Amino acid sequence: MQDKHMLMIPGPTPVPEQVLLALAKHPIGHRSGDFSKIMAEVTENLKWLHQTSNDLLVLTASGTGAMEAGIINFLNAGDRVLVGSNGKFGDRWGKICKAYNMDVDLVTAEWGQPLDTEVFRAKLEADTEKQIKAVIITHSETSTGVLNDLETIAKYVKAHGEALTIVDAVTSLGAVNLPIDEWGLDVVGSGSQKGYMLPPGLSFLSVSARAWQAYENCTTPRFYFDLGPYRKSAKKDTTPFTPPVNLIFGLQVALQMMKQEGLESIFARHLRISAATRAGVKALGLPLLAPDDAYSTAVTAVAPTEFAAEDIRKIMNKRFDISLAGGQDHLKGKIFRIGHLGFVSDRDILTALSSLEATLSELGYQNGSSATAVDAATKVLATV
Ligand SMILES: *Cc1c(COP(=O)(O)O)cnc(C)c1O
User: Fold this and answer.
1) Is residue 1 part of a domain?
2) Atom of ligand 1 nearest to the CA of 171
């Protein structure tokens, strides 16, 4: 049935009707006073969302564009960087840094496990000559549903005193508490199609004063992603190049909705929904990839042993019009991922879980009672 499709992947995510309507407006000139007013409002609200008074820059690019910009403006070829890698996106940080000939020290953990913060502490403490220029972390590792302990790692970086903390917050911003100023994070990137309730196309970077100091000494070649002009333009409530003005209209509305809901409520909603999802999936006997003490509230990765992950995804899509994400790289075919960030409610999760249960029945799963997953999830929803 048309228009009944549910997107439950970790980006793009569902978009509220108010935002869709804003996107459908006629564009206006990006050098107009009207547009500057909108830029002023969205920038202020983005700072609120990021819990920071740092500069907040808006780029026309997907999240990876913000990640690349977050490297090439602050680091030089040959710089030693510690890169946390326990999934597809941590790996991507490593690849970006290598592409620019940085000296990459990958700190790995098995996919599905969080990064070991002690390894960062030890390496930073051992670096008495202050060779490490940045510690680069993926907060919510979307490929596995793991949440890394960024707060602890950022503390060790602070104690080091020299290195910058550079963060991929693409699926944590707007879903997980990420107090940028309190944790002292220097560069934080995110993308519109994840927690922002917007289509793809915009990405965001928060940049600290310390990072701007590093910018002064950074000679890595760049043009479109040179953040200096973005900073200068942002001070005048504009952008250096033509922005996707309609996406900015949408962003204005999405941020207003978020402000109305409030940060605490947004985080609590994601926590409740992810806890209910995990309880429902467990009740069906399906193993979860991320452990109970380190899971992202944005996405739940499931590693079925008795059913093929791809069979589950196919039936969910065909029979119930629900898109789930598959596994990436070596987890392809081994896991499926339920995205639940942004414009997602309790009802969406109950729908997804009951459809998942029906899908398993179709694949031959036998269970005693008829509402295992929904029962388990409903209990959690009532208490969390
Ligand atoms: C989606 C995502 C990205 C960015 O991907 P793009 O396709 O470039 O938008 C980066 N990191 C994480 C953790 C993500 O989930």
Assistant:
1) no
2) 15
